[in-house]
Amino acid sequence: MVNYRYILRILLLITLVIATLMLVPTTMAWHLGESDALSGFLGSYACILLFVAVSYFLSRGKSAVMRSRDGYLAVTASWVVAASVAALPLFLSSSTPTYTAAFFEAMSGLTTTSATALVDIEALPRSILFWRSMTNWLGGMGIVVLFVALLPTLSESASMLVGAEAVGVTTDKLTPKIKNTALALWSIYLGFSLVQTALLRLGGLEIFDAVTITFSTMSTAGFSIRNASIASYNSPYIDWVVTLFMLVSATNFALYYKALTGRISHVLKNGELRIFLGIWAIITLLGTLSLLGSRTYASFLEAFRFSSFQTASILSTTGFTTADYLSWPVFNQLLLFLLFFIGGCSGSTGSGMKVIRVAALYKMGRAQLKSRIHPRGVFQVRVGERTIQRDQQISIATFFGVYILTAVTAAVIFSLSANTDLLSSLSSALLFLGNVGVGFGQVGPGSTFALLEGPLQWFASALMLIGRLELFTVYVLFTKHFWRR
User: Pseudo-torsion of CA 368, 371, 375, 377, nearest 10°?
Assistant: First the structure.
């Protein structure tokens, strides 16, 4: 039997934490005299108060011990409730025409997808833009990880919840207690955020721009307060800073913890990190040479700047843009398209299939070829110093198969829209599932998903959640075995 009382208590606590964090943009709206935005935030608090009251009433009484199945339901419900609450200011302030669009925007923010249904971003109140970017930062390290770090009442079920979420944090046991691990990771996350903000300020950006860009970079999310994304600043310095921190954010945060605790050798020997940086370097160099050969840019440095930024943006699943890459040579577009099937490192804020899985799949393929020649041979699958065990290989292969099947199914569903073509449908499926936020065709740089009909926006929101929670946390809820006593 599902432990509904305990799950309701978790949802209640999560809602209270979000309401507390919402005080920041609410204060901004009051200070800046943004009446529509302030009404939206105050109206949101009224809805939150009602939800908290009902949840408290229904969750009273003694609850049973939490089990693994409760963790999966609690995590999925937490993200849905968080998006539902985060969407309220957008809708009640009339920043979005419908609640459907507001929920799409909030889910895109929290899952760090950066796909937007807004037509004119710069027309929105600054407090709403701040809240929109803040949802990126909150979702980057994982919502449940944040609450585990902040709420001691979750300590008894913390490990189960974090394991079910499988977002942001690493599976490495950094400290004896999962709460201390969550605090350590969030401290590193906050520290990098402060450093990037300071560097952007040195580049001449005002504090509002610097903070919102940092929110979206550190979370590998990509929401921007400008219609033209990072391209609007037209600054090589800003481009390089953002490129650096997109790569930083897409790296396993456990490695930073190990580096800070003196275990540098573990970082240098990490196979996934070397592969991740190698992919970025190779794609960047090939892209640069292609841009130079086609005379898209006049100098090597300029071509390298744009190629490295866009490669880092899509590889890390951030989704920022500094150029209309749809006008680049087809070879460059193909290179960027291939990155949709990789993503960031495990334990990072990046999404996608993850580098470790892609590398393991390649090594598994090599091992199979060797076994055909030497049937009695035993071949280990290793990524760096890490040996991928047999059960892990089955899990990785299963994930890959389900991921591709989900993407193909989603592309078929998006093709039902009268407003999309073949490339746009396929691209939409991959960018939502991989939480990249920008793609090809009609969903390229500067595009808006206002073109999607209401039902498809709900479907896209579900796809973003499925991708962010790495498929199985959500899919397990739709099996008959999950609901059996």
Answer: -130
The three-class DSSP label of residue 29 is helix
- CA proximity to 225, closest of 125, 143, 142: 125
Strand partners, 383: 386
**What's the rounded Cα separation, in Å, for the pair 102 and 402?**
29
CA distance 6 to 303: 54
Q: 110: closest CA among 132, 93, 130?
A: 132
Per-residue confidence (pLDDT) for residue 94, from 0 to 100: 93
Q: 3-class SS at 387?
A: strand
Concatenate the DSSP letters of all residues of 237-300 into one string: HHHHHHHHHHHHHTS-HHHHHHHHTT-HHHHHT-HHHHHHHHHHHHHHHHHHHHHHHTTSSSSH
Q: What Rg do the C-alpha atoms of the chain give, in angstroms?
A: 22
pTM exceeds 0.85 for this model:
yes
CA-to-CA distance for 244 and 196, rounded, in angstroms?
Answer: 9
Cα angle value 184/318/455 (rounded, 5°): 110
Question: At 206, phi and psi to the nearest 5?
Answer: -70, 160
Query: CA–CA separation, 448 vs 107, rounded Å?
Result: 15
* pLDDT given at position 170: 44
Distance CA 260, CA 188 (A): 10
Angle at 336 between CA 331 and CA 341, to 5 degrees: 125
Q: Is the pLDDT of residue 172 over 60?
A: no
Residue 125: is its pLDDT beyond 90? yes
- In terms of Cβ atoms closer than 10 Å to its own Cβ (0-12, 13-18, 19+), residue 246 is buried
Is residue 103 within 8 A of residue 87, CB to CB? The reply is yes
* Block residue for tokens 């009609």: 442
